[in-house]
Structure formats: structure tokens, C-alpha cells
Amino acid sequence: MTTSIRVCVIPGDDAAPEAMQASLRVLDCLDLPIDWDYVPSGRDLAELCTAEREALVHAQIDASDTVLFGATNGTTPGARYLRWGKLTFANVRPIQWRPGFRSPLREAEEIDYVIVRENLEDMYVGVMGEAKDLLKAGLADVRSRLPVGAEDGRFAAKIITRPGTEQVTRFACELALQRKAKLTVSAKTNMLPATDRWFCEIAREIAQDYAGLEYEEFIVDDMAHRLVIRPQDIDVLLLPNLYGDVLSDLGAGTIGGLGLAPSGCYGNEFAYFESAHGTAPDIAGMGIINPTATLLSAAMMLRYLDLNTAADRLNNAIGNVYLSGSVLTPDQGGDAGTENFADAVIGAL
Ligand code: ATP
After folding, report:
1. Binding site membership of 311 for ligand 1 (Cβ less than 6 Å)
2. pTM for this one?
């Protein structure tokens, strides 16, 4: 069959390829109109020098409509290119409890919100250096709170831009209008007026363009508390990059753990999909990594590709496995391996 959709699969490092391999077996059963293009795993790529690795992976990414990405510890290249090369500015991380997920909360039933994390700016711009250079450049003086020991200090710059904030806010507003029409925005507004208060001011201004959208703001420490105490109140939560990274792991914890949290990174012309978790190096080679986050990320990818029936089938099959609760990986209290779990999803399909 000739197909027009090309998906680049990047298995990643440590335990990530185990989750990817199991997930691909499941996807194979969906009879998808996709040409898969496989990047070698980090272990196999390790024989190449960095420049060769990057050239190989970037070319495969460029030739694809989208990418399904396992996590990387740095051995597999591509993560940086997928974000800053492809300008994927919105990292979408759904936090949804499903029956059977092992949540530590007593009342997890109504947890169903989406974190939209700005993906390119904030403290991830990579501007770092010696604190004394800030003094030399006149960027810090006695009025700043730079500690006396700044002679032996380092800094990392936090950079927020108006276009970047406007763009990701519009994305979050549009997403909220497709859901329960509520946008929550959070940052450290009280301590960081130049960056974080400004981020919220811009978001508030942009949100006014969206009729019918409910808007609220919280300081980020209060937000962390609310995500544990009243997660049911959230619909779409917009956060600058670093807080989004941290709070999405917190959110994953409230529904039952990192093995359950998918994600997708969207730009204007490209998107890619990866679990929210890292490479789980402590369980690499054990065959027990939970592939649910990778599978749910694949379901997000199928929706992006307009393969909605397949996305629904995959979501329902995963839901049914958790509902029955008989085949679960150790992080969910079971004793099934990664491949056993995949077999159960295939059975449910
Ligand atoms: P990164 O900084 O790359 O996001 P991390 O430091 O957050 O990575 P993870 O790799 O996400 O670390 O792992 C954190 C813990 O969660 C580890 O104990 C790991 O084994 C566990 N974990 C992560 N993903 C899964 C999964 N899919 N199944 C089971 N356990 C997981």
C-alpha cells in the first residue's frame, strides 16, 4: 500500500527503547497508513561521532511528517533540534486519571487537565556564566541581592519574550476553548516582576481576545499546592518552561506516576510526541518500564495526524487494560513486564 504519512521513530536511551518497542508492536495492530522510519537506538548510535549522529537523525526528522520520540540521556541526538530547530513552542502534557491508575490521592476521579508548558524560553535558553561577569557588565550592582560571595558564583538567565508568550498563550486559549473554556496561568509573579509578572500580564491581555474564556492566575508555589489539593479545578494550565517541567511531573504523580503521562510538542509547522518521563536508567534492561506514557503519546500523535478512529481505539484499549487491572507493570502495583502489558493492550484492541 502506498502511504503519504511518514513517522520517524526515535527509540532513545536507557529503558526508553523498551517502552518504544512494545508500543510499536501495539501500533502495528492498528493497521495504520504510516511509513515508519526508524532511527537506531542510542546504544547503536554510540559508534558514530557526535556530528555523524546528529546529521543522521536530523535528516530523518526532516524527511518525516512527525516524530515519535523515546526519552534521551544525551546519547541519542534530536531533542534539541526537535525543539529549537523546529520551533515547537508548546509542550502539551495532559494529566488525566483513568480508572485503574494507581493515584496516591483519595479522590482522583475528576483529575483531567492539560499543562501547556512554554517550550523554548525561560531558563532553557542556555545563557549561563560567572556571576562576577554580571557585575562587570553592570547587570547587577549593590541594589541587587547578589550574594557577597558572587566572586565565586554562577548565573543562569531567565528570558521571557513577548512574541513567545503571546504565541503560547494563544495556543493555550484555543485549547481551553475546545475543552472546559478555563485558562489558569501561573508563575512567580511576586518575586520576579521583570519576567514572571510580565508573562502573566501578557497572558491576561491575550486571553481577553477569547470570548467565553474563564481566566485565573496563581503564584506558582500556591499552584503546586492546588495541583495536589484541588486538581479537579484545573482545565488548561499555562506555565513558563521551568515551572511547566517541574509541575508536570507533580501532576503525573497525582494520577499514578511518570509511566502514565504523555506529551506532545507543537509548533506552527511541526509537532512531535514523547512521554513526559525521562529514560528511567534505574530500570533499563529489566523489561518493566511502563509503556503507557509512550502509547498515550502515540495516541496524541494519531490525533495530530487526523487518524482519530485509531486514536480512539488505542485510548480505549489502554483504558480497558487498566479497568480490568489484571496486567499491570510494577509501577502500578502489578508484576507484568513491558511486553506483557503490550500484549494485554493488543488483546484489548
Ligand atoms: P528527565 O530529567 O530526563 O526527565 P528524570 O530525572 O525525570 O528524567 P525519569 O527517567 O523520568 O527521571 O525517572 C524518574 C523515576 O521514575 C525513575 O525511578 C524511573 O524508573 C521512574 N520511571 C520513569 N518513567 C517510568 C516508566 N515509564 N515506567 C516505570 N517507571 C518509570
Report:
1. no
2. 0.95
149 band by pLDDT with thresholds 50, 70 and 90:
low
252 lines ligand 1 (CB under 6 A): no
151 and 232 belong to one structural domain:
no
**Which of 210, 229, 255 corresponds to the end of one domain?**
255
User: Could you tell me the distance, in angstroms and rounded to a whole number, from the CA of residue 176 to the centre of ligand 1?
Assistant: 28
Check which CATH number belongs to the domain holding 44 and give it.
Answer: 3.40.718.10
* Structural domain range at position 38: 1-100+259-349
Same domain, 1 and 83: yes
Nearest CA to ligand 1 atom 23: 280
pLDDT, tens digit, 9 for 90 and up, residues 29-74 = 999 999 999 987 777 777 888 888 888 899 999 999 999 999 999 8
The number of domains in the chain is: 3
Three-state SS annotation for the chain: CCCCEEEEEECCCCCHHHHHHHHHHHHHCCCCCEEEEECCCHHHHCCCCHHHHHHHHHHHHHCCCEEEECCCCCCCCCHHHHHHHCCCCEEEEEEECCCCCCCCCCCCCCCEEEEEEECCCECCCCCEEEHHHHHHCCCCCCCCCCCHHHHHCEEECCECCHHHHHHHHHHHHHHHHHCCCEEEEEECCCCCHHHHHHHHHHHHHHHCCCCCCEEEEEEHHHHHHHHHHCHHHCCEEEECHHHHHHHHHHHHHHHCCHHHCCCEEECCCCEEEECCCCCCHHHCCCCCCCCHHHHHHHHHHHHHCCCHHHHHHHHHHHHHHHHHCCCCCHHHCCCCCHHHHHHHHHHHC
pLDDT at 189 over 70: yes
Give the ligand 1 atom nearest the CA of 289: 28
Cα of 247 from ligand 1 centre, angstroms: 15
